[in-house]
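Hi again,

Forgot to attach this to my earlier email, sorry! This is the prediction with adenosine monophosphate bound. I've pasted everything inline since the attachment limit keeps bouncing my files.
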Amino acid sequence: MTIPAYDPNNIFAKILRGEIPSHRVYEDAHVIAFMDVMPQADGHTLVVPKAASRGLLDADPAVLGPLFTAVQKVAGAVKTAFAADGLVITQFNEPAGGQTVFHLHVHVIPRYEGVPLRQHGRGMADPAVLAAHAEKVRAALPAPGTA
Ligand code: AMP
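Structure tokens for the complex follow:
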């Protein structure tokens, strides 16, 4: 599989540069995490490494450990904040794999027994609702320096 070059004008690169807003829940030296604007379930959060790569295969392996450490932290907070029965953690590569934004990211999505997910990348959420959901996730994260 040939991987196209990274495009620094993708929407997550713009969020990382602060050029467009996001409902941010977490940041450390390696990643940011913010609410997905088209959530497949309430609480759907994206964890995005600061280092540029299009997907998993062109990422610096050194990025992956800190990325998944943050995914674990955010996933725990999302599960608590939304009283989820479970979580689905996904990462898509290239259009054939379902990827639509070409900067590596990991989805953290709450799941509930017997409740189907909403469709991927469809249906923009109300910004006020996303802001409230982001606040719930932030409140469920450990205070910086404690975990
Ligand atoms: P993927 O298909 O894995 O590339 O998923 C990209 C995700 O980014 C989708 O779930 C979109 O709903 C989400 N998304 C697109 N634009 C934004 C944005 N500006 N802020 C937050 N999430 C976004």
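Residues 87 and 107 are 10 Å apart (CA to CA). The chain has one domain: 11-140.

That should be everything now.

G.
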